[in-house]
Fold:
Amino acid sequence: MNLKNPLLGLIAATALFGCSHADEPVPEAGMVGSSRRFQAIAAPAPVPPPRPAIKEADAQLLSGSEVKPTAPTDSAAAGFAITTTAFLADGKIPYKYSDYGEKVSPDLSIAGVPSNAKSLVLLVEDPDAVDPKPFIHWVLYNVPPSTSYIPEAQPASLKLGDLGNALQGTNSNGSIGYYGMHPPAGAKPHHYHFQLFALDKMLDVPPGAERSAVRQAMDGHVIGQTEIVGTYVVK
Structure:
């Protein structure tokens, strides 16, 4: 190379520099070059929008459980209880009280009713039944809150004079009053929930009502709730 001519030397140097980098890859968008190595920059993952808050009632529905109507509870509701001499809690219900036996309702004792209660409701349900689900065995409502004992073998009448004119509704068998346990033979033990509710009002529901009408009327007026559960199986 002739370096005596500065202009020619500059042109030669420029050409030499350009040739030495002719094989150097050109960094693409999103890449950082360092010598001959390039590292891709990962695009940030999109941030999902926040989920809307699920209301408690909706969450219960989504989980498959039923929404229970509630109202402010009285402090005495903590001792609210229902018991029976017929069976222990979670124990076996005797044959006598089933539809296979004497078809009579068990005796029930009530304690700790909230002081501001105006009426009581008793619902007996079998959630293990297939159709309908749950199977309703007893609908009893407008029971006076002073009631502490419900004798066994309540009659199948619309109004119970011995219980302060409490009203009876229609069970899933289509009859009035109590319907005994009747799970199919060979099925696993069914659970029978004797649910007692304390309300802050008397229900404006006619005698013979179905469980759905009673539950709707209870909405927002439950101030206490308790239950005892028994099982029954036919081998």
About this structure: DSSP finds three helices and eleven strands in the chain. Confidence is low (pLDDT under 50) at residues 6-42, 48-69, 72-76. Residues 15 and 147 are 108 Å apart (CA to CA). The radius of gyration is 38 Å.
